[in-house]
Design a protein that fits this description.
- The protein is α+β, with helices and mostly antiparallel strands.
- It has three domains: about 1-65 and about 305-410 and about 540-570, no CATH class; about 100-260, no CATH class; about 415-535.
- It has 18 helices and nine strands.
- The strands form two sheets. Strands 1, 2, 5, 6, 7, 8 and 9 form a seven-stranded antiparallel β-sheet that branches. Strands 3-4 form a two-stranded antiparallel sheet.
- A hairpin with a 4-residue loop joins strand 5 (about 155-165) and strand 6.
- Helix 4 runs antiparallel to helix 12, helix 9 (about 305-345) packs antiparallel against helix 11 and helix 13 packs across helix 14 (about 465-475).
- Keywords: Cell membrane, Disulfide bond, Endosome, Ion channel, Ion transport, Membrane, Transmembrane, Transmembrane helix, Transport.
- It catalyses: Ca(2+)(in) = Ca(2+)(out).
- It is a multi-pass membrane protein.
- It is found in: Cell membrane; Endosome membrane.
- GO terms for molecular function: NAADP-sensitive calcium-release channel activity.
Amino acid sequence: MEETCDIYDAYDSNTSPSWEDHQPEHLENLEEVEALRRKIKYYFMNPCEKYHARGRKPWKLLLQIVKIGIITIQLVSFGLSNQMVVEFKEENLMTFRHLFLKDYVDVDKEMYAIYRQADVYDHIEYIITQFGLLHNNTVGNHEYEKNGTVYTPLRLCQEFYRNGSIYPGSETFEIDAHVDSECLDIHPMDTTSPKDIFQHFKVHFKRLLSVKIVFVLKAINLQTVRHRELPDCYDFTVFITFDNEAHSGRIAVQLENDVEIKECRDWKVTGAGRFLELAEDITYLLLQMIHSYFPSAGKSIYLTVVFDCLIIVTCVVSLALCTRSVIKGIKLMLEYSRFCGRCCGKEVPWSDKLDFVSGWYILIIVSDTLTITGSILKIEIQTKVLTSYDVCSIFLGLGTMFVWIGVIRYMGYFRKYNILLLTLRAAFPNVIRFICCAGIIYLSYCFCGWIVLGPYHEKFRSLNTVSECLFSLINGDDMFPTFKNMQQKNNLVWIFSRVYLYTFVSLFIYMILSLFITIITDTYDTIKHQQQSGNPTSDLQKFLSVCTDLPKSGVYRLKKSKSCLINCCINR
């Protein structure tokens, strides 16, 4: 078997070795080497070549095509449903701000603030009054939350330092940093005047940290009926905060809410067409099977649950097939490594080893895992076990993105499209090294800009905004406003800002970005030259180039035996 090692030496000297010149002493060894070579070459064939070689149907390819279609349909369906949920939550948040915040206008919410003690009491009184007049004011279907037969009250709380004596005129103070709180519950049907309430609730302005008002409102999202979906019931926990932690004379007022989505206890939809009636009939047949897994499920189980289950089954099959292919590739890699070590006394380089582990299969495995997880979460959302649309969106979005990226694998079978994949693969290590070096310079500019320009420029107030601003400058976006909005209160800092911005733009746009493009361009030219020359560039390619058998030659077909059916199933 020593003669097989000459194959590599022959290619190193740019001569095409003849297999007859390296005939092993034993014919069975030659057959073993040829069998290994054909096995590896068959592994790297595309689905069309494998069909001609062994008549193997391209099941994985067909499955991926079907999977792309159904997963995209699932994503679009979930996206439309999620869009209605997001719109309903955002519109309710805006409604609450207009209902409960005095003189609120649709501007930047960070600009809404009060500056006088009387205004604090006026705003609190306004909120309490509007809460009691909810039924008369709202144009929506909002309602108070009930605990049994009693309405849940509005809770008014203030947080303040336990003790404190502050004298700015004499520049002295004494403060106890422990935080105390006072709370007061106000029921919506309470006839007590807000003026009387303030007799028992005095705001300690000198020590005040915050005033918080919390209440719960309920609503039903009826817009889903028009889209042939059953409405959900929403619990909005509204938080109104008067923030005085800075003690600067400006109390910022913010209104936010937490949303809990629940299944409505009882519902009846008429005039919505045959769809909901059919969904209810089929759901009743599936209810007994699904109810054991989802105890909260009821009439609102949709046909989409069955569709999601179909996607899960499809992804599980795809996951199993791709995992089997990865395992088969690892086994071939180990077999090839043992052959090289035994016959040639050389270790297979990692670049050749990684060729056996297809990154596309790994990508499909990750995609299937994400899609299965997202589909399970989607089923739980539809059955009202979970209400976290964001987590489900991340899983389904990433899964669909990876599925579509996986299509590029089949585009790579065409020679003109394959050069893009080869360029990305070859340039990736150099690009990562280049980004690491450029990233260090980028971080240095971020830290410097944050500490020096932060007090004078809005875009440099935090590390996050600094990074976003500098990244926009690299792309040539928002460049003039960044220069213009720099405050000129300090001449030294203003001059520094000009030097800072000019050097950053010049360094990254004219030098670093150009070098980055050059790396990819050089890699593209190298790959293009290799494709034109047609010479094998790796030891593995040299080993396989000796085998000139075409897929249609018939030498790749498995030998028939009594257990042919079992062997065919295993090899497929």
